[in-house]
Amino acid sequence: MRRFVYCKVVLTTSLVWVLVDVFLLLYFSECNKCDDRKDHSLLPALRAVMSRAHEGPGEMGKAVVIAKDEQEKMKELFKINQFNLMASDMIALNRSLPDVRLDGCKTKVYADDLPDTSIVIVFHNEAWSTLLRTVHSVINRSPRHLLQEILLVDDASERDFLGKKLENYARTLEVPVRVLRMEQRTGLIRARLRGAAATRGQVITFLDAHCECTVGWLEPLLARIKEDRRSVVCPIIDVISDETFEYMAGSDMTYGGFNWKLNFRWYPVPQREMDRRKGDRTLPLRTPTMAGGLFSIDRTYFDEIGTYDPGMDIWGGENLEMSFRIWQCGGSLEIITCSHVGHVFRKATPYSFPGGTGQVINKNNRRLAEVWMDGFKDFFYIISPGTLPRFRLNLLSLSGWECIWGGNKCVWMIINA
Ligand SMILES: [Mn+2]
User: Which residues form the Glycosyltransferase 2-like domain (predicted)?
Assistant: First the structure.
């Protein structure tokens, strides 16, 4: 009997010590330079321990299963945002996610004096749970000293909860979060420009309104910009299922391209780019174009290359426009394979396009072709002949741009066409 009691005491004390060890391990593995970073790293470590205890829906990026008798309601709710809103609303705003990075990324050490960043998130009628999960994932998984602020730019949403309720909620967060409002629907580009103009950080990071940042997402992006301020960097975009909100790691073996209709497309990374990096998949991957929703850019470099084309409406073409602009203005566009951010990919767009979807995208693509593609624009006009006559009429309203090299800077002149 006595032996049994001894055993119990020994077992419980060792269990306590194992737990203490686990905590200490987590605490110290979170911080690279522990002397001055203790206050920063205690919180994420605690959160990490707590999130491991989570057993709720969608934790660790798992798929959410909706009960049979809820399926009808689920289908109704799906139509609002073109993703499974019921599933999203069931998942915690600070849900845990797996660490999907390559092993070589987990041990990289970054400088202490990385530039800080402002986060700009444009939204239009976004769901509460996806928007706020984006915000919480930024706050929870970014070192506080690298996060200047989060700017939420509302492109004239019509939902009540995105009004005062959002502003009040933003005030309760531990990072400055400001809500800016566009007076009327203007589209992604001009709303992003509004946000960018209000930023105070050294780097601007644009995110979509239905993202989730994973552990260690920010440091490698900022480290690359510190190394070369003319590199514009994207994370690997992981897939958050629109049906189940399951988190699935994206591949570092695809990069951005386009077809002659000027649609963005993913293509396999060519051997020459693997060779340039000497086979090290953790190094920045040069990509011809980007998907456009998520990237970081040095704020002064963004100004130097003339920001976005403010004449583009609503959505479409702006990602290729920015990609062509960067490469042609002496910069480089790179996927930072150690940085992972999830994005809810949808099969259909929930957004309205004032003026008609086709019209808006054609107009944006014509501007893209005329400004950046020189003789190659003919491929676009041959493939999409419908765009040609209307373009001729519109040419009068298009301001041509000329890029003049002065020293290392790309200076923008607006010339009237
Ligand atoms: Mn999106």
Answer: 118-302
